Amino acid sequence: MTLPDTMTALVLREDGYASGSAGDMPTDLSEFVSLTTVPVPQPREGQALIKVSRAAVNPSDLMFVSGQYGQPRKAGMPAGFEGVGEVVAGDTPLLGQRVSFFGMGWGTWAEYAMADARMMIPLRPDLRDEDAAGLIVNPMTAMAMFDIVRADGAGAFLFTAGGSQLGKFLIGLAKDAGIAAIPVVRRAEQAEALKALGASEVLVSSAADFADRAKAVMAEHKPRILLDAVADQVAADLFFAMPRGARWVCYGRLATTPPRLDQMGQFIFMGKRIEGFWLSSWLRETPPEKVAALVGEVQGRFASGAWHTDVSEVLPLTEALDRFPQVLATKDAKVQIAP
Ligand SMILES: NC(=O)c1ccc[n+]([C@@H]2O[C@H](COP(=O)([O-])OP(=O)(O)OC[C@H]3O[C@@H](n4cnc5c(N)ncnc54)[C@H](OP(=O)(O)O)[C@@H]3O)[C@@H](O)[C@H]2O)c1
To answer: Is there a single domain that holds both residue 34 and residue 85?
Structure first.
C-alpha cells in the first residue's frame, strides 16, 4: 500500500500538565487541540502504523487533552488514546489485519496512528467497529475491577457514575456471576434502564430519600466494595456507611470538589481501606497470559451481545472540534471519531 506523506489530525496544543486545581471535564476542546496537517509517522522497530477507522472519545481523553490526566501532554502530537483500524505498515505479522489498539505517542484522533506492535489486538470478524473502537480502556477496566470484587468474595458491590459505559459493563458482568451490582447515579431517569440491564438496586444521589435508601441497601446487601469514579462527598458518605472491612477503590475523579473524610477511626477499628485503580498500572503488573485471556473474554462478550457500546454520534475528524461542545453534552452514550 502506498501511504501519503501527510495526514489530518487533532493535535495537542500544549505540553505537560495544566496548572491549578482540578477542573471540570471540558466539552469545548478548541483551547487544547487543533485540526492540523502533520507528517504520517514512520514506524520504527517494534512499532506498527494503523489506518484509523474509529477512535474513542472517553473521559480520560478529555482529562488528558486538558492537562488533568496522569501523563504529561506533548504539544504537536495527535490526541486520542484508543481506536480500531487496519495495520498498514510496521514490524508485525498483523499487516492488513483489523486491530484494536492503544495509541503510542501518536494518538488515535488522526487518519493514521502508531501502536506498540506487541500490544495490538487482532479482532474477531463479528465485532462491530463501535465496540472495537473502545475495546481496551473501559472493557478491560471493568474486567479488572470486577476481578477485585470476585476475589474479595463480595456478594454485592456499589459503584458510582453508575450510568457510565463502564458501569453498564460492570452490571453485565455482575448479572452473569450472580453478584448484586448497585449503581449510584445522580439522575433518577437512568434508574429503569440500569435495572433492565440487571442492576439489583439503583441509588439516586439527588433523591430526597437517598440516605434512607442507602441505609436500607447496606442492611440488605452488605456491600464490601465501592468502585468509585467520582471521588466526592457522596462516595465518602457511602463508604463510611459500608460494613466492616469495606474497600473504596477510587478509579476516577469526575468531581471537582474532593470529599472530607471525617471518620478516620473506621480505618483503625473497622479495617476499612482506600485504594486506587489505574488500568495502565494494572496492564504493566498483570501476567500477559491473564491479560490475553480477558481480551478474549471481552471480544466474546461484545460478539455475543452480552455487552454493547452505546454510541450517540460518530464525528468526521474535520467536524469534531466544532461539534464537540454540543455532542459531548449528550448523556448516556459515547461520541466516537471516524477519521
Ligand atoms: N482508572 C482507570 O484506569 C479508568 C479506566 C477507564 C475509565 N475510567 C474512569 O471511569 C469513569 C467512567 O468512564 P466512562 O467512559 O464509562 O464514562 P461515560 O460513559 O462517559 O459516562 C460518564 C459518567 O460519569 C457521570 N458523571 C460525570 N461527572 C459526574 C459527577 N461530578 N458526579 C457524578 N457523576 C458524574 C455521568 O453522569 P451524568 O450522565 O449524570 O452526567 C456519566 O454517567 C471515568 O471517570 C473514567 O475516567 C478510569
So the answer is: yes
